[in-house]
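INFO  loader      accepted 1 record
INFO  loader      residues=288
INFO  predictor   begin
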Amino acid sequence: MANGISLANQKLMLEEGTELSFYDSEALKWQAGATDSDPEAGHPSPVLVLLHGYCGSSAYWEEVAPMLARQSRLIIPDLRGHGLSSASADLEATMELYADDLYAILEHLRIDKVCLIGHSLGGYIALAFAERHADRLAAFGLVHSTALADSEAAKDNRDNTINLIKQGQLEQVIDGMSQKLFAPDNLDKLPSKVARVKAIGYQTGGTGAIAAASAMKARPDRTSLLRETKLPVLLLAGEGDQIVPPERTLLFVGPSITQVLLPDAGHMSMLEQPDACAEAISSFIARI
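INFO  predictor   done
INFO  writer      dumping tokens
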């Protein structure tokens, strides 16, 4: 769908000077004056927002986006300091800040309700958004993500990551991370996709990467929100996920919760198993 590090085709400048870049599958319609509620605006299903993971960008979703755009209008942001979105030199990020960035984009686009799907870091943001702006959600989902807080070991790993990036070793961090993002068998089977993920990661700003790692370390446990929400929820896990094992994603069962476990996928099913990933999201949306 794109060769660059981002799918973004739109930008929004916030009052404090941060420029948020995002992809809108119906950008031309919106610019022509259509709104989410116009009969001609397109899709009966809710607008679908896809959030990417750490040191990623909207391009993480490039293989599933064409499939999902047949069903829903897509909004796919680049998080602050990732992809083509900027980050101030003194950025101190929180999941709530990223959630409010998304809120600003939706306000800018005059979009009322969305289905929000977050991958990894994006899932943590989706939970924060559900806590702060539940009235703007028709449904939400976690893809290779969890409502649990970081363990003490994970917090130590965040600190190690931050220290390495401060020492100018972002590329080494991305190289090491890429070996865990894919299911072990897929590292040899999908070398071009591993390389693609590395190329996107290398372009992440050091400030954005440090701020996101700090925000992930500090995020609270939101299992109570996941347990108590009345909204439809998708929990999608990869059988071979080395970063967020399935048992940390598939925490609860219930009438409003859809669980999907994808074989032959690690932490990047949108690249490892794009058809299955798209089908899981599409089927979930169709039932809302």
